[in-house]
Amino acid sequence: MVSVNQLSVEFGGFTLFKDVSFLVNPKDKIGLAGKNGAGKSTLLKILAGVQTPTSGTLSCAKDVKIGYLPQHMKHDDTGTVWDEVEKAFGELKTLEKEIDYLNEQLGKRTDYESQSYLDLIHQVSDKSERLNMLGGANYASGIEVTLKGLGFERDDFTRLTSEFSGGWRMRIQLAKILLQKPDVFLLDEPTNHLDIESIQWFEEFLKNYSGAVVLVSHDRAFLDNITKRTIEIQMGKIYDYKASYTRYLELREERKEQQMAAYRNQQKLIEDTEKFIERFRYQATKAVQVQSRIKQLEKLDRIEVDEFDKSALRIKFPPAPHAGSITLEGKHVSKSYGEHEVLSDVDFTIERGEKVAFIGRNGEGKTTMARMIMNEISFTGSIKLGHQVKIGYFAQNQADLLDESVSVLETIDRVAVGDVRLKIRDLLGAFMFSGEAVDKKVSVLSGGERTRLAMVKLLLEPVNLLILDEPTNHLDIRSKELLKQAVKDFEGTVVVVSHDREFLDGLVDKVYEFRHKKMKEHLGGIYEFLERKKMESLKEMELQKPNGKAVKAKDNGGENQGAKLSYEQRKEISRRVKKAQQQVEKCEKKIAQLEENIVELDRLMQIPQNASDPEFVRKYQELNVLLEKEMEQWETCQQELDEAELEKRKLD
Length: 652
Hints:
GO terms for molecular function: ATP binding; ATP hydrolysis activity. Residues 543-563 are annotated as: Disordered. The chain is an alpha/beta fold and 652 residues long. It folds into 5 domains: 1-65 and 182-242, Rossmann fold (3-Layer(aba) Sandwich), CATH 3.40.50; 78-180, P-loop containing nucleotide triphosphate hydrolases (Rossmann fold, 3-Layer(aba) Sandwich), CATH 3.40.50; 250-299; 326-535, P-loop containing nucleotide triphosphate hydrolases (Rossmann fold, 3-Layer(aba) Sandwich), CATH 3.40.50.300; 559-651. The chain has helices at residues 40-48, 81-86, 90-108, 115-133, 139-149, 166-180, 196-208, 220-226, 245-280, 287-299, 366-373, 408-413, 424-430, 447-458, 477-489, 501-504, 526-542, 559-604, 608-611, 614-651; strands spanning 2-11, 14-24, 29-33, 55-60, 66-69, 184-188, 212-216, 229-234, 237-241, 326-337, 340-351, 355-360, 380-385, 391-394, 465-469, 493-497, 510-515, 518-523. Helix 3 runs antiparallel to helix 4, helix 5 runs antiparallel to helix 6 and helix 9 runs antiparallel to helix 10. The protein is globular, with a radius of gyration of 31 Å.
């Protein structure tokens, strides 16, 4: 579908890629892997046609549609959320207008036998067929489902896009791309601005999507759940693995061991050859052998080894100063922005040494609570810090608070104390500041670089309460692992606002869910919480009558009642699946019959007397209208079938 042939990219004498070739096949789910700076985003830009390579070719099959979501984009939209997303259906809207215009022209014409009249009829037929293929007038339901899946409420649909943050506006652009249904999705860090619920919805969408997906992500769980193939970019070359990200890491280690063995053998050969040349260079009797060995070395294809540092650089936070047994306590906490209430009468207690996650959809109050704990915004109720609690806070805007007049190295040198001063360059290197980059002024750093520098700075400050608000957004997988280990080893209390499940897994032992203006406490890790939420939602579904009204389950004793509910639920869902299948089949039969009738009428319309018969033309138009309505009905039934089958799979 998309073919990359002998691709090379150079920047000022530096070669990023050299003679790279691979194919993107229909339905491929590909993750791009490699160190920061390896060229993952550049490769996506080339695939999207945004950037041209130095040499090589990129070819696509005819009519292949590509949807590209860059990591950073400029937003120039000015309408409402709905208006902006509706632009995804530009072709559909144009077709609707053209069909309306053509029908209007047909109504005015009386020259039924003319060729131009027949041409109009054919144009209406062709455009109606294309309109039905694109979803017809049923696109509104697709917009609603997509926006809700990405975390928007119905009330948000009519709000101006300018009222939303950059992260939410990124979701609007993502919704547009999803609704355009491209043949190939190119996604650069798509989860950076999504919460856990939206990521899970997005995962299901991509897993079930019929097209191809090529993505760059530092969310390991996201990669594992979607990708079936991993293309690693390393030292200007690519290595193609038919495996998900975690399996790719295992296979890469095996390849590296083989590569190192071959490298050591080659180095031994080179060393022995050079010794022979040096020893017999000036002996006439060995001149032929010496020249032969010299030519052998010149022709040798030297094995290069990736300079990826496998050494386990282990950074620890300074020892946490002693504090009281209660770190944080909130009572009757409420917060409103004007008439919009975010949190209402919340109570919570976080004890010393606990590591907790704040989880919930964006806008439910996670960051607001973090800022209230820091006393950055006003609220009602009380939040009390425990005895001698000292906070280290990483905010989403932490990068803006750095001193722009000093260098990267000076920024860290100011806060580093003790033995860690000897490891400053190693620590900066782990967070992608190496070589001359440590001498760059903060003022010239990108947003991502500033975020990473702020994280390094936080790693060195002696505190006993860490509050981390989306700390992993601009970190690669290795940097995240480094930070995660440091937080795990930290002796103090930790509060993490994050949507990164892989980062939270094994790190937190309690989850606070922000929902419906409340904080609900869940004991256990992040995957236990997610599994429990799935069970809770199923339980809620079990207690729903077919008409949607909740009923109270009778208490027949624990597990037996749960089994009964599960059986009844399975029975109900199976009934829904069967009914939906029948409805879809019924619609498909009607559509097939209507299409046959229209084809026959098309044939008969070639006869002049039929084309000039108003009754004949009216019947032809009526059949097209019936076909359009039946297609809409089929889409509705198919959506109901998809939803019922998804619920059935969850139970299975």
